[in-house]
Amino acid sequence: MRDLATGENRLLTSAKGGAPAVNEGYAGSAIFSPDGKQIAYNWYQLENGEASLRLIGADGTHMSVLMREVSKDPGVYAWSPDGKQIAIALLDYVDRTNQISLISAQDGSLRRLKSTGWRKPLIGGFSPDGKYLVYSVPNSPELADGGIFIIATDGKREAVVVQGKSIDSSPVWTPDGRTIVFSSDRDGTKGLWSIQVADGNPNGSPELVRGNMGVFVNMGFSRNGSYFYGLRKQQTDIFVADFNQEMLQTTAAKRLTDRFVGSNSGIAWSPDGKWFAFVRSGLNQQAQTLVIRSVQTGEERILPTKFERPLGPVLNSSNWFPDSRSLMVADINKHRRVFRRIDIETGQDRVVYDAPAGVWPLVRL
């Protein structure tokens, strides 16, 4: 915990710094109780893969476990205004579905409100009166079925706040409960938008608060109405250097391309040495594209892929087929790993292997 007045940082869950021991774990998301006396947080055990939802005093004492699961992950998001309930997104590792749920802060009893299927919800919190939750889910491929929604905490009714082909996410309530602010790229850049609400329903159209903010995290409002957000400045790029095998030395590395600097990653060199394949993040690092670049000419082609997740973490030299004319790429489809073979000339792909739910094989050719 960080004291904003003094700048002091204090560990709550460990008496030691550094990496945890083998039988220890690590903390995930954390939120304060409305009175500021308790913190709800996720804890992940390294030894057995167990995920739990825990409470601890703001002074680091009186830790208790509300929920402990091996096959489920109780992601913590918001505490109800009266301090009695905590909103969580419960991910089931077996069937890969997500459940928006409420858990009692007193006895750990669980009440499921809604399943969002394979799409992970971002719960923006309770309305100030505690009657509603606001959350967002991403669109399915080629559909505009995601967006921002309000659901009553008794689970009896739900309303669409905004929905469309734009990426709308990270909603939070204003302190008076009359407005929801959220991130959106609906004007072509990622910015902060707002929409008025009344009785759990939208009241008007979205309005731009501030545009062209880059990649930011919506952190919500303080009690006095101040809005907080975090900026993500992380950039990745691809560099190439000559290598002297006899001297085991390299020349100074040069950036592979000056296009979309800071948004290129996941390099994969073809077996014949003629092509680079890599992932490029588009505007504000939202749209992921697969790029094929000629080593000789520097000419680039964008392949018309339709993948649901960033490709960088699963793209490397082992993804190329020996003919250097196609790539094997792992996609995530409704929380199932799907392997696709992509023709670098046409961009056409076909499914090679659709892994069963809960099975996560790696790409190796």
Labels describing this entry:
5-stranded antiparallel sheet, 30 strands, 4-stranded antiparallel sheet, mainly beta, about 375 residues
Q: How does the SSE layout of this entry go?
A:
Layout lengths: L24 E8 L5 E8 L5 E7 L6 E6 L2 E8 L5 E8 L5 E7 L5 E8 L4 E5 L5 E6 L9 E6 L5 E5 L5 E6 L5 E6 L6 E8 L2 E2 L4 E4 L5 E6 L5 E5 L7 E2 L2 E2 L4 E2 L3 E2 L8 E6 L5 E7 L6 E7 L5 E4 L22 E8 L2 E8 L5 E6 L11
Antiparallel strand pairs: 1-2, 2-3, 3-4, 5-6, 6-7, 7-8, 9-10, 10-11, 11-12, 13-14, 14-15, 15-16, 15-17, 18-19, 20-23, 21-22, 24-25, 25-26, 26-27, 28-29, 29-30
Number of helices: 0
What percent strand?
A: over 45%
Low-confidence stretches: 15-22
Radius of gyration: 23 Å
Which structural category do the helix and sheet elements fall into? mainly beta
Give the CA-CA distance, first to last residue. Answer: 46 Å
Q: Which sequence of SSEs, written as H and E, runs from N to C?
A: EEEEEEEEEEEEEEEEEEEEEEEEEEEEEE
Mean pLDDT score, rounded? 85
The count of β-strands is: 30
- Morphology call: globular
Helix content: under 10%
Describe the biggest sheet?
5 strands, antiparallel
